[in-house]
Amino acid sequence: MASPPATNDELERWERRYRTEGRRVTEPSAFVIEAMGALAVKPGEALDVAGGTGRHALWLAGRGWTVTLVDGSATALAMASADAAAAGVDIITAQLDLATEPLPPGPWHLVLIHHYLHRALLAGMDTVLAPAGHLIFAQPTVVDPHPRPGPAHRVAIGETATLVPGLEIVSLVEGETEGRHEAMLVARKPV
Ligand SMILES: C[S@@+](CC[C@H](N)C(=O)[O-])C[C@H]1O[C@@H](n2cnc3c(N)ncnc32)[C@H](O)[C@@H]1O
C-alpha cells in the first residue's frame, strides 16, 4: 500500500490550526497510559514523533524519561516548551518535516507515534530503536466513525501487524478507545 506521509500542504494546515485554535487535547491518551503501565520499563531516552503540543512528551518527562519531541509545527513545539517550563519538566524539541527529513537517529528506548501515519517511518523503526526498545503506535482505522483523519491517514484492519518488520509485537488491539476505532500497537526490538 502506498505510504502517505503528510505533505507540506498538510503540515501548513497543522501550523495554521495550532495558531488559530491553540492547544488541542492536553491529557495523554488512555492507550498510552495503559501501555506504559503494562510495560513497566525503567525510563530512558524517548522520542515522541509528530507529538504536536506535547501531551505525551510532558507526561513521559514527568515520569523520568528524557524526551525529544519532534513535530513540523513551530507553534506546537513552542506551546509544548512553554507547558514544560510551567510544569517544571525538561523536554527537547526539534522542528522536522517528517515527509522529507529523517528521524533523530537515537538509539531510542521508546518511540511513540500517536495519530501520525507514515508507513516508511514505521518500517524503519528497527534502525532507530535500541535493543529491547519499544514502539508505541496508535492510529485510527478505516472503520473509525470520526470524519477526521481522511482515508489516507487510516490503517486497514489487519494492516498494522505488517508495518513494523524486525520488531516483535508485544500487543496489538484493533478496537474502541475513547470513542474512536484505532489500531493500538506495542512492539519491541529484539535484543
Ligand atoms: C493528529 S496530530 C497528533 C499529535 C500528537 N501525536 C497527539 O497524539 O496529540 C498530528 C501531528 O503531526 C504533525 N505533522 C503533520 N505532518 C507532519 C510532517 N510532515 N512533519 C512533522 N510533523 C507533522 C502535525 O503538526 C501534528 O502535530
Sequence-ordered SSE layout with sheet pairings:
Layout: H1 8-21, H2 30-39, E1 45-49, H3 55-61, E2 66-71, H4 74-87, E3 92-95, E4 108-114, H5 119-123, H6 125-128, E5 129-140, E6 168-177, E7 180-188
Parallel strand pairs: 1-2, 1-4, 2-3, 4-5
Antiparallel strand pairs: 5-7, 6-7
Summarize the structure.
The protein has 191 residues and is an alpha/beta fold.
Description:
This protein has helices at residues 8-21, 30-39, 55-61, 74-87, 119-123, 125-128, and strands at 45-49, 66-71, 92-95, 108-114, 129-140, 168-177, 180-188. The protein has a 7-stranded mixed beta sheet. The mean pLDDT is 95. It is globular and about 35 Å long. It is α/β, with parallel strands linked by helices and 191 residues long. The protein has 6 helices and 7 strands, in the order ααβαβαββααβββ. The chain has one domain: 3-Layer(aba) Sandwich (Rossmann fold), CATH 3.40.50.150. A hairpin with a 2-residue loop joins strand 6 and strand 7. The structure holds S-adenosylmethionine. S-adenosylmethionine is lined by residues 6, 10-11, 14, 25, 50-52, 55, 71-73, 76, 96-99, 114-116.
